[in-house]
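Predict the 3D structure for this chain.
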Amino acid sequence: MEKQNQIEAHMHPKGITPLFLTEMWERLSYYGMRALLVLYLVKSLGFSDVDAGAVYAFYTSFVYLTPVLGGYLTDRFLSYKFSIYLGSFLMFCGHISLAFSDLSFFYLGLVLLALGNGFFKPNMSTIFGRLYAGKPGLRDSGFTIFYMGINLGGLIGPIVCGSLGERVDWHLGFLSAGLGMAIGMVVFYFGSKRLPNTIWEKQRDLGGTLANTTNDSQTKPKILLIVLLSFFSIFFWMAFEQMGSSLNLFALRNTDRSLFGVEIPASVLQSINPLFILLFGPIVSTLWARLAKRDQNPNPVLKFVFSLILLGIGFLVMVVAAKYAETGIAVSILFLVFVYFWNTLSELCLSPVGLSFVSHMAPVKYASLLMGIWFLSNAFGHYAAGILSGYQNRWGSMTNFYGFFVLCSWFGAILLYGIYSLKKKSILALLKGKEEERIIPVA
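Done. Predicted structure below.
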């Protein structure tokens, strides 16, 4: 029996499968639509780069701003399951709205998608994290697997929706994204029945209010650490999200996309990053798990530092590509492949780690709200990314534009490591502190 318990202690919870699949279908719809967005605005509606960048900025930032509201409403009034269903339905309606050609339906669709994401995203991440309540050593590894589900959808979405949108009809591409969302809703309906009931229960005291199960002396430092890493994630997203905007346009205008005599749609290149996630995600997940067994797993702060260093390397490759492009030649597709390779390694050290960190570190009373704060930092980064992308040709040269992200990434890495060095003892003590949650089910 003891040996069996030891084996189970190193196994991932069975409930990760339905959540993995639900997230995969939802992300298929999101990334399929995102791959088309800027290209549709520029090629079909005739928007300038600046105007298209502004729309992209407002939409993607709103997508990550609404989880603050959705997290708050869920913490106070709604159940986790209801919020996920509500968010899924709103996003489905948003995709259907984009399938109409009228511009008013286009903007309505973007609003519905952003609102729906606000209820869906923070609660899916929170619920997934609660599966690992008794297995903290597997949390980072588990969120990396969860992140693979996100990127499996991100791989398929641009291929299906992008190809249909660019080669057949833009609105058919948006409609196919809606179909993906509908499948995700069905998967969640049946899959949620297999999840343990405890993950849906909210923690309450006898008076009916949310219980703060974390040591009061640790609550504020934990929240501050979450805010600190959320702030530095802005450096990451500001650069990383160039993929859906300026790098997407670079693929359209400055890249030789011919492969075996067939021109690949620019939107399909958005699948390179999720493909790399699927290839390297298992390796990184295994690495974190093995290091955790040896008590050598780098803490989340150091992983963030590694992420920003790797991100800067990726944009350094982009600086070289931009130099060639400014001579008037269409550069090899391999440049974007290498850029996305380094960006992917950077992403694996930050995004799933951040989700894992917030779900683990957040005091129970503020779980969904603090997950919303994490996504709020994403919103700032996405907004900056979209606005900056519209001005890529107004920096004197594209090399200056992409060089800016090299400097920002490495500056962020140096600054974060400096703060970590100054507060190392207190941060390590906080990260190693283990408080058992007192769970009192809702009546």
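The domain at 15-197+216-432 is CATH 1.20.1250.20 (Growth Hormone; Chain: A;).
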